[in-house]
Amino acid sequence: DQQVKQNSPSLSVQEGRISILNCDYTNSMFDYFLWYKKYPAEGPTFLISISSIKDKNEDGRFTVFLNKSAKHLSLHIVPSQPGDSAVYFCAAYNDYKLSFGAGTTVTVRA
Amino acid sequence: DGGITQSPKYLFRKEGQNVTLSCEQNLNHDAMYWYRQDPGQGLRLIYYSQIVNDFQKGDIAEGYSVSREKKESFPLTVTSAQKNPTAFYLCASSMASSYNEQFFGPGTRLTVL
Questions:
Q1: In terms of C-beta distances under 8 Å and separation of at least 24 residues, what long-range contacts does B50-59 make, across chains too?
Q2: pLDDT for A5-55, tens place per residue?
Q3: How far is B89 from chain A (nearest CA, A)?
């Protein structure tokens, strides 16, 4: 029973353009949402997060939007850079635990 | 230089053998976690521990065991009862004041031959 879903396994974007990653969840008890970035054979690194009481959080080139009524969140990366090529995981927090989506592989083209 | 260390980075074992993966943190974090990642899948929680000498099963605990005798250490044993042990294993930790913000180690790639 996957509670966090990332339906796009991959995304290709041109350098300088916007990357939009999407995430859907089913558990309305989640009270915190996070995005992690992961390179092959490395551990994920924290990118940005948002509390369930907010609808937007911005940190430099990264912005996360939360739509609670739709149980949907998205990560916007503007502008996309070659170093952004990685796997991005959406995660949701509840009851001391994180639930992760399957990840979206982002490739930034020169 | 604080962080989480996992050793070794690559580990090979014969089928039927138990193997223990190491995880150490010097962040003074209270909570520690073990996840497993398989190709095309997200991270799945195996076990977690909020305090020393206490731990809880995650979503896929069968075939695994853990101990938490020290705050900084949370070793994971993959037993012969685990049917598909080949995977990438990730350890994480967090402060008690912010369980949601977990920091990850570099991972151990376990291959069972």
A1: B50/A96, B50/B96, B50/B99, B51/B96, B56/A96, B58/A97, B58/B33, B58/B34
A2: 999 999 999 999 999 999 999 999 999 999 999 998 889 999 999 999 999
A3: 9
d(CA A41, CA B90): 10
Instruction: Check residue A35 and give its pLDDT.
Output: 97
What CA–CA distances, in Å, run from A38 to A76, A87, A90, B22, B62?
16, 5, 11, 21, 26
CA distance A48 to chain B (A): 10
Interchain proximity B99–A93, CB inside 8 Å: yes
Q: Which of A97, A99, A104, A105 to mutate to test the interface with B (most CBs of B within 10 A)?
A: A97
Residue A96 at interface with chain B, using a CB cutoff of 8 Å: yes
The residue of chain B with its CA nearest to that of A44 is B104
What average pLDDT does range B61-90 have in this prediction? 95
| Integer Cα distance of B7 and B106 in angstroms | 9
A105 touches chain B (CB under 8 A): no
Alpha helices in A30-94 (DSSP H): none
Strands B87-94 and A19-25: unpaired
Q: Where are the alpha helices (DSSP H) in chain B?
A: none
